[in-house]
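Query form — protein NAD(P)-binding Rossmann-fold superfamily protein

QUESTION: What is the three-dimensional structure of this chain?
INPUT:
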Amino acid sequence: MPQYYNSRLILQGDSSSVGRRFSRKNLRPGQLSSPLSKPFLQLNDRFQPLVYQHGSSFYRLRTYKRAIYAEAGKQGWDLGRFVKTLYFFNGPPSPVKFFEFLMEKLSSPAPSEPVTAMDSPGIVLVSGATGGVGRRVVNILRSKGFPVRVLVRNKDKARNMLGPDVDMNCSVIFLSLGNALENLVTPEKGKGLDEMRNIKDIGIHKNYVHIRLETYLTMPEEISGLRKEVRWNLNHQVAKLTYSQVVGDITKESTLVPEYFKGVKNVINAVSVIVGPKEGDTPDRAKYSQIKGDSPEMVEYIGMKNLINAVKGSIGLRSGKLLFGFEGNSSKGLAWGALDDVVMGGVSESSFQIDPIGGENGGPTGMFKGVVSTANNGGFASIRTKNFPKAEDLSAYDGLELRLKGDGRRYKLIVRTSRDWDTVGYTSGFDTVKGQWQSLMFSKFEYDGKLNPTFVEGAFQLPVSSIRSYIKDPITPRFVHVSSAGVTRPDRPGLDLSKQPPAVRLNKELDFILTFKLKGEDLIRESEIPYTIVRPCALTEEPAGADLIFDQGDNITGKISREEIARICVAALESPYACDKTFEVKSVVPFSEPYTVDPENPPPEKDYNVYFKTLKDGITGKEILEQSPVPV
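ANSWER: The structure tokens for NAD(P)-binding Rossmann-fold superfamily protein are given below.
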């Protein structure tokens, strides 16, 4: 979904047909123009948040109430309510605002058609991309056409390991503008390139990047005549995007700049603490049981916490993003104001209040209520939010969900992606079932303009308990993490350590490496991000292709190739069967036997869904620890 600035609920006499769950591929805007001129109704860019109390959500204003009467047979028009509506959305009258509006109208070009957003699969962020598993993940993603962004600490190391064609522009867009435009602007007219850095929108599809239009308002006057030509070219030409790189350290929160994660839809995390000799080693590798670099706590736990916080807003939560409503003891409020037919001479009237006991389980709920009348050629009542402080980024989600209690009437929902008042709005009508709580899902907005067969004048009441974004079913993993087998074993009672891998036996000597890996896993499981946690046994440089054993409960030992783990991680991204699962994996080949393949006749690629389908929710290996707690 795109970014939204405001929303509106309407009860109207000519509402459209029902809108339930649709495909998100074709958003159809409807132009919604105000009957009043823009200087009166233009929204403030400022947003004053409202703390909900047990009462109306309106600001308490002194209203000037005076009825204006027209010809016989018409009802009086409430000028005071009209002024109150203007004041709520615009604040006090300002000559400065009027002058700014007038200058904008005189200088702005004619409105253009809205640009349709590309249905992009989203960027896959690979952290730990220079490690043994990470660089293989990058190569597999690229071969499959995924747009990839790599998060690395050392850009020179990344360039050496991943290739010289890595884009090194790490400031905001991570795209080499010169390379993208080298064939689109002639050299003699290319002097404006330095002025064209303000790219507002980049659409990525597979491994191609499309640079969108409206950016070229910053082009210098001497080449502004090229604007049409350049726009046409950019609509029909694409620049090959291999992958982009951002430089950051997950152990340092300040280096994880929010711009790095724009457009990221999935994360594969292969970051791991480094085990090895700090300086030199002995022939029998006696010093190999040392931590090199940052501690396990910094990398596996604090680093994981920083990474989750950095990507959570971009990749989305399983339960969606609450825009309005109540959850337990917390709530998310919006500044709602009435926008009724009084703005065009009508007499309908509505409000939005908080009912402290009107919710599904006797808790609080929002209440859209009022009286709708067709007098004075009116016939609609609506509420609209003030503009959000900044647009709500819902790109990680597939639609909006309204939870409400119906009254048998038809309503419509409008969302907007611009701060302007008379701008494009995405509209969908919906029917309600009287007396029933229902969840309505909106992923495609279209409006057919048909008359509302259920319209009845008079009082109405619509409890709305929540408005939130959602991820459609089946949900696939958004965060795939490479952990390690053995993370629950150091404190497991009755375990024969002599039969366990070195990391289990030396957990304390290695600064509790497995303990902090488990803590990092727990952060993922508690984050509400759809996840997969892969726990490989001992990693090798052998090729992929051996038969595998997937297990849960953290019991198996063995070996598996890094190439195989990389393939499993990429396959998990598209499998609902891998979502919210934690599992261990090894090959059937014993440690004592090297595994090789014939390059001329490699084994066929596996269908990892066969393995994912055997996995169960909630099994981590911690169950044994919880049943038999170990004294601290």
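ADDITIONAL NOTE: Residues 3-61+77-113+335-385+395-470 form one domain.
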